[in-house]
Design a protein that fits this description.
This protein has 409 residues and is of the alpha+beta class. The protein has twelve helices and seven strands. 22% of the residues are buried.
Length: 409
């Protein structure tokens, strides 16, 4: 239940995510029972992050088979980065390789890796926008070329028709002269000149026919090439759309991810600023989810997340937006929804999850959720406290009051 109210807060979110991945990657040493509460408290935001990172590194220093920095190296290798971020990742990897046995720099390296992960969505979005702009420009140029080719074809057809008309007109005039004057009047020399004129026109006509035939072949070839390029652009646009879907989709649950949520929230806030159309934000958090992982394993935890995500998404309207915010927390945006309706939606979601049974194969499991919601309506002033923070505070109240309930913020 943490708020993304500032870039600094987002950075801390990513740092905690890196540390959570790190803890998941390693086996804690013999002091696990004594250290694990501190680790959990730090990941929950209740201890300074740097202090936790350094303590974790010292705690693992005696694990010579895989020191803390070595585990971070495996995390770096597992992150797919675009070319623009690879140099930073390579430099960080070099530093970690040189510091495998040094526990004092662990916290600083965690922050560097978190910063890389934090920059990844923005870099992917910039690349997507650049490719989309290039494809759009190329498509416009191809359409313009297509129009020019069609115009050239039309001009060639008109010219061919005019040439044929000229040929016919000259032949008609010559035949008229021959019919008007007999050989005795015009003489053999006039006939010869008329025959020469007719021959010149015919030869010109033949050359024009050959030239227009060549132009038709060239135009046909260009049309074929334009169609091939247009098909290639269509395929690239389809691939871009598929890549966009992967960037904004949580791979485990199939819901939108945090990146998609940030985009949609900005859109809804801008629309509210302009039209004052009410909308609400609802946070849902699975109760006692850590116990599910501890008792049944992380695979069972994944099944719970997928089942709850499906239940929530299937209960909402098509115009609503839901994303997996992180861990066991989901965020819902409800356009055109006031406070009382947001509370009703939260209660409907809570009842839907509470009444469901999750099949884990060897056993079944029931879970509950707690919800917090906040609203911006026509009368709301620009909020001093961000909407997410208000909903997050309401969610905390729901947890503090006993869980499995809906509270307003």
């Amino acid at each position: 239940m943490r708020s993304p109210s500032s870039p600094g807060a987002l950075g801390v979110e990513h740092e905690r995510a890196v540390l959570a991945l790190f803890v998941a990657q390693v086996q804690l040493p013999a002091c696990r029972d004594r250290c694990r509460p501190d680790f959990d408290a730090a990941l929950a935001g209740e201890q300074p992050l740097e202090q936790f990172a350094n303590r974790l590194s010292h705690c693992l220093a005696e694990r010579t088979q895989e020191p803390a920095c070595a585990t971070l190296l495996r995390l770096i290798d597992g992150v797919s980065l675009p070319q623009e971020l690879r140099d930073e990742a390579t430099a960080l990897r070099t530093q970690l390789s040189a510091e495998v046995g040094d526990a004092t720099t662990f916290g600083r390296r965690v922050r560097q890796l978190a910063a890389l992960i934090d920059a990844l969505p923005s870099q992917l979005q910039r690349e997507k926008d650049a490719v989309a702009a290039q494809l759009s420009g190329l498509g416009d140029r191809l359409h313009a070329l297509h129009r020019v080719l069609n115009q050239a074809t039309d001009i060639g057809t008109v010219a061919e028709q005019e040439t044929a008309a000229l040929d016919q007109a000259v032949a008609s005039e010559v035949h008229g002269l021959e019919a008007e004057y007999d050989a005795g009047t015009l003489g053999d020399r006039l006939h010869a000149r008329l025959d020469a004129i007719v021959g010149l026109v015919h030869r010109y006509r033949e050359r024009e026919v050959q030239r227009f035939a060549g132009l038709r072949v060239q135009n046909s070839t260009l049309h074929d090439r334009v169609r091939v390029l247009e098909n290639a652009i269509a395929q690239l646009q389809a691939n871009l759309s598929a890549q966009r879907a992967r960037v904004v989709t949580d791979p485990l649950t199939g819901l939108h991810n945090r990146f998609a949520y940030d985009e949609r929230l900005a859109h809804e806030l801008a629309r509210w600023q302009r039209y004052r159309t009410p909308f609400s934000l609802l946070l849902c958090d699975i109760d006692h989810f850590k116990k599910v992982n501890d008792r049944h394993g992380h695979q069972a935890g994944d099944e719970v997340l997928k089942k709850v995500a499906k239940l929530l998404a299937s209960t909402l309207r098509q115009s609503d937006f839901i994303a997996r915010y992180g861990g066991e927390e989901f965020v819902v945006l409800l356009p055109g929804t006031r406070t009382n309706h947001a509370a009703a939606v939260g209660e409907k979601l809570r009842q839907r999850v509470t009444g469901a049974t999750i099949d884990l194969g060897t056993t079944t499991l029931g879970v509950t959720i707690s919800c917090g919601h906040a609203t911006l309506d026509q009368t709301s002033a620009p909020p001093d406290t961000p909407l997410f923070e208000r909903a997050d505070a309401a969610l905390y109240s729901a947890k503090y009051s006993g869980r499995n309930r809906v509270c307003a913020g």
